[in-house]
Amino acid sequence: MIIGQSIQIQRILTFIDKLSKTDTTALIMGESGTGKELVAKMIHQKSSRAEKPFIPVNCAAIPSELLESELFGHEKGAFTGAQNCRYGRFELANEGTIFLDEIGDMPLHLQVKILRVIQEKTFERIGGTRPIQVNVRIIAATNKDLENEVKEGRFREDLFWRLNVVPVVIPPLRERKEDIPLLCEYFINKFSHKFGYSLQIKPEVMQIFLNYTWPGNVRELENLIERLYVLNEGGNINIKDIPERIRFGENSFQKELIPDDLNPFSSGIDLNEVLKEYEKKLILHALNLHGWIKSRAAKYLNINRTTLIEKMKRLNIKDNENED
Ligand SMILES: Nc1ncnc2c1ncn2[C@@H]1O[C@H](COP(=O)(O)OP(=O)(O)OP(=O)(O)O)[C@@H](O)[C@H]1O
């Protein structure tokens, strides 16, 4: 089930409906963990091939020297150790769907064979001469910029255009934050069946989730909820239960970058947090420069003494006992 109320997810659901009524090749693009395999499975399950196999192949996880035999199989005696004839995944997926995950990592010589399967619906097993006919729908996915891979010569342009007939782009979770509460609810519900108890996320924790950038996308959120189930036997989830990486992730990263005004903040800026840190630095600088005499430091900063005291309290700057 694909969860999400964002416009982007609603649009993807419409795409899935349309794609499941046809037999065209589809290309799903998105960062790791955004749900590419889930979308591919859903297209298959809603299609007329639903009763037939859905065969996923992670092209990046299988060493390139094994990938060809994994995909296309081999004849008996095709190479040392090939004692029996072996069916490849294309044959196993016959009448169903093959999901070629991480297709951007597929070696060029295999891209040619894939192109031929798309165009002619035939291939040969390794060591074989007899063309084998298959009726397989191909859905491919990638987290790479395939157009760029084409430019760099690592991906065949003809295959790119063949795959890119109907591109589906799944945006990262940080670009559809309105899906986060729904996804939390969905995973809490899912794991409550497995663990036999439930969790509640406090609003301040949800705020942290909304501020975080989720580089591992939905998979990271799902893993976090499972982890919270393992470590907390039910009840409320408080801020202290959340790993520091998520609690302070972006902020601790930014703190290191503050001295350099023009640093490239690759994943966005929490302006209030950065300004607060910068203000604290300037106030500490002024206080140190003037021996922690607040009236002088305030004058140096061109603010009132009372404003300085107020700011020191807010920024948690401990007084150095030097009263003026
Ligand atoms: N919108 C969603 N609703 C419910 N579950 C989701 C959603 N998106 C992703 N998931 C879940 O998140 C996990 C990761 O999704 P999936 O494996 O489909 O991602 P992927 O993009 O194929 O990742 P990778 O590129 O690393 O292979 C899965 O458990 C999947 O069920």
TrEMBL record:
Protein source organism: Thermodesulfovibrio yellowstonii (strain ATCC 51303 / DSM 11347 / YP87)
Stored PROSITE patterns: SIGMA54_INTERACT_2, SIGMA54_INTERACT_3, SIGMA54_INTERACT_4
Molecular functions (GO terms):
ATP binding; cis-regulatory region sequence-specific DNA binding; DNA-binding transcription activator activity
What keywords would UniProt list here?
Answer: ATP-binding, DNA-binding, Nucleotide-binding, Transcription, Transcription regulation
Coiled-coil annotation reads none
**Mind listing the GO biological process terms from this record?**
positive regulation of DNA-templated transcription
Q: Which InterPro entries match?
A: AAA+_ATPase (IPR003593), AAA_lid_NorR (IPR058031), Homeodomain-like_sf (IPR009057), HTH_Fis (IPR002197), P-loop_NTPase (IPR027417), Sigma_54_int (IPR002078), Sigma_54_int_dom_ATP-bd_2 (IPR025943), Sigma_54_int_dom_CS (IPR025944)
Write down the Gene3D superfamilies for this protein, in alphabetical order: 1.10.8.60, Homeodomain-like (1.10.10.60), P-loop containing nucleotide triphosphate hydrolases (3.40.50.300)
Would you tell me the protein name for this molecule? AdnA
| All residue ranges annotated as the Sigma-54 factor interaction domain in the record | 2-230
Write out the GO cellular component annotations: protein-DNA complex
A Pfam family assignment: HTH_8
The highest taxon in the source lineage is Bacteria
